[in-house]
Amino acid sequence: MQKIEFIGNLGKNPVEKVFENGKIAEFSVGVTEREITLKNGTIIPASTEWFNCIARNKLADVVLKHTSKGHKVWIEAKMKTRRYTDKNGIEREVKEFIVRNLELLTPKERRADPVPA
Prior knowledge:
The protein is mostly beta strands. Helix content is 9%, strand content 56%. It is built from 1 helix and 8 strands; from the N terminus they run ββββββαββ. It has one helix at 57-66; strands spanning 4-10, 15-19, 22-33, 36-37, 43-44, 47-56, 72-85, 91-104. A 5-stranded mixed β-barrel has the order 1-3-6-8-7. It starts with a strand and ends in a 13-residue tail after the last strand.
C-alpha cells in the first residue's frame, strides 16, 4: 500500500470538474522547506515543492466548500502517474496525488465557512 503525507498551502482556489461517475476537485499544494544553515556555515536555501492533488466526491465537496488559496491543509494521499498527449501531439506525464484523507489546518476564524461536522 502506498501512503504519502504532507502539510502545505493551497496555491490557488480549487477547481471543480464534473464527470458521469462523480466530481473531483483539482488543487495544488505547496510544501516549503525552510532555509537551513549547517554547522559549517553552508546555507541551504528554502525551496517549495508543488503537489497536484485530486479529491473525489465527498472529499471534493469539502475542498470546494471550505478551502481557498493560501489555506493550510494536511493531506494523506497516494501518488498516481497519468500519461496523456497534449494539444501539440507531445506525450506528457504528470504525477497526481489522489487524496484519501484531508484535515483543514487554517483556523476557522480565517476561513469564510464553518468547519464541516
